[in-house]
Amino acid sequence: MAIERTLSIIKPDAVAKNVIGKIYSRFETNGLKIVASKMAWLSAEEAGKFYAVHKERPFFKDLVSFMISGPVMIQVLEGENAIAKNRDLMGATDPKKAEPGTIRADFAESIDANAVHGSDAAETAANEIAFFFPAMNVYSGR
Ligand code: RTP
Ligand code: MG
C-alpha cells in the first residue's frame, strides 16, 4: 500500500477541550506519523480560502466563524493509506452518526463543532498541505 500524506486540523472545539494529546495518540497508535505541526489562530480570509470549495453552501458562513473562534492545531500525517485511514479515525461529519470509538464520536458535540478536519482525496491533501506548510517545514516520517 502507498505511503501517503494528509492534512489534519484539530478544530477550535477540541483545542478548547484540551484533547490535542489524546487525538495525537490515536494517530500514532494507528500508524500515522506527525511530520509537520503548528498551532494557529486563522483569519477569516485564511479559513475562507481553506474551505473555498464550500463557499456556495448554506453552512459556509457558520463554518468560517467556527474555524476562527479559537486556535487550531494543524498537522501533516504520514503513513500507509493515510488519507482514508485518517478519515476512518475521524468518523462521520455529524458526530451523532459517527461510529463509536472514532474521534468525532468521542470528542465532538455537533456537525458544526466536529473536532477535526481531514483531507478527503489525494489532490485535496496535496493542496491543503501546500496551503499551510511550505515544503521545507514537512519532514520525512522515516
Ligand atoms: P472536514 O472538511 O472539516 O474534514 O469535514 P467533512 O469532510 O467531514 O465534511 P465537509 O462536507 O467537507 O464539510 C466541511 C464542514 O462543514 C460543516 N458542515 N456543516 N450543516 C451542515 O449540513 C454541514 N455540512 C457540513 C461541518 O463542520 C464539516 O466538517
Ligand atoms: Mg471536507
| Strand fraction | 15-25%
In what order do the strands lie side by side in the largest sheet? Answer: 2-3-1-4
State Rg.
Answer: 14 Å
The first-level CATH class name = Alpha Beta
Q: What's the mean pLDDT score?
A: 96
At the fold tier of CATH, the topology name is Alpha-Beta Plaits
Reported for the largest beta sheet, the result is: 4 strands, antiparallel
Q: What coarse outline follows from CA principal-axis ratios?
A: globular
**What is the rounded distance between the termini?**
16 Å
State the helix count.
7
Report the order of strands and helices: EHHEHHEHHEH
Low-confidence stretches: none
Integer tally of domains: 1
The name of the CATH architecture is 2-Layer Sandwich
Determine the CATH superfamily: Nucleoside diphosphate kinase-like domain
Helix content: 25-40%
